[in-house]
Amino acid sequence: MNRSVATPLMLASPGAVLFAGLVIVPLVLTLILSFLAYDHGTGIKDSWTLAHYMHVLSDSYYLGIFWRTLRLAALTTLICALIGAPEAYILSRMRSPWRSVFLLVIIGPLLVSVVVRAFGWSMLLGSTGLVNAALAAVGLGPVRLLYTETAIVIALVHVMLPFMVIPVWTALQKLDPMVEAAAWTLGASRFSALRRVVMPQVSMGLLSGSLIVFGLSASAFAIPGLLGGRRLKMAATLVYDEYMHELNWPLGAAIAILVLVANLVIMLAYNRAVEARARRMLG
Amino acid sequence: MQKNGPVALLFHALVVAFVLAPLVVICLVAFTPENTLTMPTTAFSLRWFRAVFEHPDFVTAFGNSLWLATIAASISVAIAVPAGLAIDRYRFPGRDALNGLFLSPLIIPHLVLGVAFLRLFALIGATGSFAWLVLSHVIIVTPYVLRLVLAALSGLDRSAEQAAMTLGASRFTVFRRVTAPMILPGISGGWLIAFINSFDELTMSIFVTSPATVTLPVRMYMYATESIDPMMAAVSALMIALTALAMLALDRVFGLDKILVGEK
Fold this sequence. Notes:
The complex is a heterodimer of chains A (about 280) and B (about 260).
Chain A: H1 2-33, E1 36-39, E2 43-48, H2 51-58, H3 60-92, H4 96-107, H5 114-125, H6 130-137, H7 149-173, H8 177-185, H9 190-218, H10 222-227, H11 235-244, H12 249-282
Antiparallel strand pairs in A: 1-2
Chain B: H1 6-29, H2 47-53, H3 56-89, H4 95-103, H5 110-124, H6 130-154, H7 159-166, H8 171-200, H9 205-208, H10 216-226, H11 230-253, H12 256-261
Helix pairs in contact in B: 1-11, 2-11, 3-6, 3-8, 3-10, 6-8, 7-8, 8-11
Keywords (chain A): Cell membrane, Membrane, Transmembrane, Transmembrane helix, Transport
GO cellular component, one term (chain A): plasma membrane
InterPro entries (chain A): MetI-like, MetI-like_sf
């Protein structure tokens, strides 16, 4: 009996030690750092203060960046849902070879570095890029796209789309296609079959996809960094600037902690929603 | 079998075009003979690929990334396989907490991990150390490996292990000769996913790399914020080619859709 406790602890201990030392300790250190006073001349001081949080949560400059972060992440999530859910549905109705081929096409770019994909969009959206060339061809004047919020959202949607398609696809796999066919046979229109039969099944996938997309978009770094330019900052690029250019680590740490807390709150809310739904379904 | 209508197929075509557009443009522009980011129309040239290999910064960064990803993926496998065995096979106090700890890097934004590591490394004097950079990557890739190892273990038929045990094999021999070969696809798939994730990681690495340990994505990000010329397209095209190769390998070993979509 004793052995059955010792063996798993021995097996897991190298990882447990590493993770305790490199996940919990650094996060606690960062939390502490965010409460330490900072002076532009002398650096980090040994006294405690709430000033960084007060400053970040009252200054309109920071609030503006937080608001942009939330707004663009929400917009990205909405667009991903509007594109990703129908696409997953279309994929699930494809025939055998095409289904896996296109699933790979949609999901494969996930494995290509975000820097590469952001760079691709900066070429497409530039003043001499393909998008402006296409607009010129149909007689629309050059539009400034690069270094705008539009560019950030377009590239974010591109990067996040697989995270929406995957959970919806997984949810659809559990749905017997004959159920939808049965609804048609019983006289339901295509639309009401979609709405009353397919949608309820997909909603959990859609919810978890939205959550992942929102969380990743709100903390995205490379996309706003490369497509937003110096002016259009989001939370992650703001933290980077505080750390690397302003050298105000405590302030940067305070923002990072706020990002983390917001992320965890959303995850908790999601778990609540899942549990509530499970309880409803069990009656 | 229900078929997709013409509207659905048109929608699908647009989505596929949207997904592939930036990658295709990169691969085309990489072959331009011009000095600017233009599509090659009449002539193709390899000059920008040559420029990449004559640029020591990129070559060094590529070497760093390759080493970093190889070592980090290997260490994370060495951690995740025993940890997975412990979590799958045993019920012990703190099991759920341990599982949560191992998977926690998935819900902590890389940005937050980056500043957290930076603070720790600054305090212990490990800034710019390659070894600590490797460990930070182990943290972010281990959850992926653990998930695949756990999936492989839970789908395992245990009668072969029991047979070996009955025939007198020791616990370690059972693992080495029976369990390990059966979960090998999960392990190798996990290693590759870990490798790719480590190789591509930017947001956390940008906080903890020094000029000497800079990785390829960090180098590319820095380069792209300073200047934009076709060399960036050439590096990107090389990375796309490398990723495509890795995908092919992954598909052979494990079935890519299984790893990415996570169905069993």
